[in-house]
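Same chain as my last thread, 143 residues:
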Amino acid sequence: MDKFNLPEPVPANGNYAPFHIDGDLVYVSGQLPIRDGQLVTEAGNNSFIEIAQLQMEIITLNILSHVMSAVNGNRNRIESCVKLTAYLVPPDGFFEHALISNIGSDMINDFLQPAQNHTRTTIGIKSLPLGSLVEADAIFKIR
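reply #2:
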């Protein structure tokens, strides 16, 4: 877990809560690739895959930041990730969605040592807020 440099939780950009605790579940609202207050839109040679993978990495850090906030920074209270949902705006003819969502799954598994798998859905859609290529939300089980 020490290799994770989690940012400050990104505040909600609308009339919703960034996360909601219901019993032993934490629902993290959809996160965008916001770093230092800005949407990250460039990476490497700016191919869809490179931008989307970087966006998924930033999004996952933002998700983990909210979960840690929900447990007041006590990593031991996070039992597991139950579900990760990723939304992509892929170019025509792109069908390798797992190349993007695996980034989030791998990072969550690395964070939750020992690694545990979670359920996941990855959906290709036409557009996302602010022109992002990726958005993701998650559900975690806590103690």
